[in-house]
Specification:
By secondary structure, the chain is an alpha/beta fold. It is built from 17 helices and 13 strands. It has helices spanning about 10-35, 60-65, 90-100, 115-130, 135, 145-160, 175-185, 205-210, 235-250, 265-270, 270-280, 310-330, 335-345, 345-380, 385-390, 400-410, 430-445; strands spanning about 75, 140-145, 165-170, 190-195, 195, 200, 220-225, 250-255, 285-290, 300-305, 395, 415, 420. The longest helix is centred in the C-terminal third of the chain and has 32 residues, at about 345-380.
Length: about 450
């Protein structure tokens, strides 16, 4: 091509086509800009969308944040606070993060679909025990998930696709998100009796009757320890009876372990119910979260382990878990899992973690005793011994929704309407204020 001239008929045709396309783009631009709202008549395509309700748990914090009172107290969301009422980052977590930052060989590449290998291996050992026969026989598949919620959802999606009995029984009451997770995954949700309001303890007979009438092959959600929201756990003897009944009926256990080590202060002690079921050679699922016991709330670190009958089955189950995860979030984030793996594989850091974990658990136990003592000192009507009998982050106070509303309105204390309070949100300074509010609610709003 010389002097801007086209050298062949083919070149001339291409030039004409280019001029035509440029003209078409200009015309289209003019047509689009002439009437930008004509296609939609000025309305949003989402104009029909209704405002959704606030989450009943997270909504408590929304209301708390809007309250200007200087004495307001948030006992709704389950997150640990120090005696000063501040969020806590464990020293061992900061140490692990510093190690990771200083390691110049670390990169930000994608993890495999199943997550960080070290994290998965160490998480299975933490909940099942380092000497677990299931681990030694390669009958366990573990995948890294997005904290406890994500682990439950991945497990539920897998069960909805591959379990012949797509019904899951959950305790009444249970964590508010359980029903939504399992329903959206495609499982049919039913309940079994768990809490007895009269005794503010376990309705063990009702539990056995309801599980005894469940169809063979049904899935049963079990809180591994520190039942949320009641803080009521079966004894080891009762767990043994539950295990025997479930195995005889062919019911599939799905443990939710959100508080290992955070309930009693002992990692092994809080894992005993899970290990009891693994010890009989049967199959089960367990969802783990490191939000509470390592304080990694915002890192969203969790794991799903499925214990199978054989290594071959475990391998095939893992292949199907990958097919669940890939279209859901492709692969999990690397940072939080690396923190956990760094702590779990170093004996000194692991020891330091157990000390910090026990200190958190002990502070919560002491808050239970302080609240019980404060109510007894005020002569508050009723038996409040359930506060010190229950375990873990939450106490199911027995207060009704009217009493809860009264405490919020008159004392600026925020909690869920079912009367659940987070003991981790209390301090020596705020216990008297809470005790005053409970006393007033019970004596004036009975």
């Amino acid at each position: 091509m010389l002097g801007g001239e086209l050298s062949s008929p083919a070149d001339r045709r291409l030039g004409a086509l280019a001029r035509h396309l440029q003209g078409s783009k200009a015309t289209a631009a003019i047509q689009v800009s002439a009437s930008p709202t004509s296609a939609f008549n000025g309305d949003s395509v989402f104009a029909h969308v209704a405002r959704g309700p606030e989450d009943p748990i997270l909504g408590v914090t929304v209301a708390y944040n809007k309250d200007p009172s200087s004495v307001k107290l948030n006992l709704g969301v389950g997150a640990y606070r120090t005696e000063e009422g501040k969020p806590l980052v464990l020293n061992v977590v900061r140490q692990a993060e510093q190690i990771l930052v200083n390691d110049r060989s670390r990169v930000k590449e994608y993890l495999p679909i199943v997550g960080l290998a070290d994290f998965n291996k160490l998480s299975a050992k933490l909940i099942l025990g380092a000497d677990s026969p299931a681990i030694q026989e390669n009958r366990v598949t573990t995948v890294q998930c997005l904290s406890g919620t994500g682990s439950l959802r991945v497990g539920a999606e897998f069960l909805a696709k591959h379990c012949h009995q797509r019904t899951i029984y959950i305790p009444l009451p249970t964590w508010g998100n359980h029903t939504k997770i399992f329903n959206l995954a495609g499982l049919s949700v039913k309940t079994y009796r768990y809490y007895d309001p009269a005794t503010r303890g376990l309705n063990f007979q009702g539990l056995l009757e309801d599980l005894g009438s469940a169809p063979s092959g049904a899935i049963v959600l079990l809180h591994a320890c520190a039942h949320n929201p009641t803080g009521v756990d079966p004894t080891l003897q009762q767990w043994a009876q539950i295990r025997q009944l479930m195995r005889s009926k062919g019911l599939l256990p799905f443990f939710d372990s959100a508080y290992q080590g955070f309930a009693s202060g002992s990692l092994d002690g809080d894992a005993q119910p899970v290990r009891m079921f693994v010890g009989d050679g049967g199959e089960l699922l367990v969802a783990q979260s490191y939000a509470k016991n390592m304080g990694l709330y915002g890192e969203r670190v969790g794991a799903l382990s499925i214990v199978c009958k054989s290594a071959d089955v475990a391998s095939r189950v893992e292949s199907q878990l990958k097919l669940v995860i890939r279209p859901m979030y492709s692969n999990p984030p690397i940072h939080g899992a690396s923190i956990v793996a760094t702590i779990l594989k170093d004996s000194n850091m692991f020891h330091d973690w157990t000390l910090e974990l026990k200190a958190m658990a002990d502070r919560i136990i002491s808050m239970r005793q302080r609240l019980f003592d404060a109510l007894r000192a005020r002569g508050t009507p009723g038996d409040w011994s359930h506060i010190i009998k229950q375990i873990g982050m939450f106490t199911f106070t027995g207060l009704n929704s009217d009493q809860v509303a009264f405490m919020t309105r008159e004392y600026h204390i925020y909690m869920t309407s079912d009367g659940r309070i987070s003991m981790a949100g209390l301090s020596s300074r705020t216990v008297p204020h809470l005790a005053d509010a409970i006393h007033a609610a019970v004596t004036t709003r009975a």
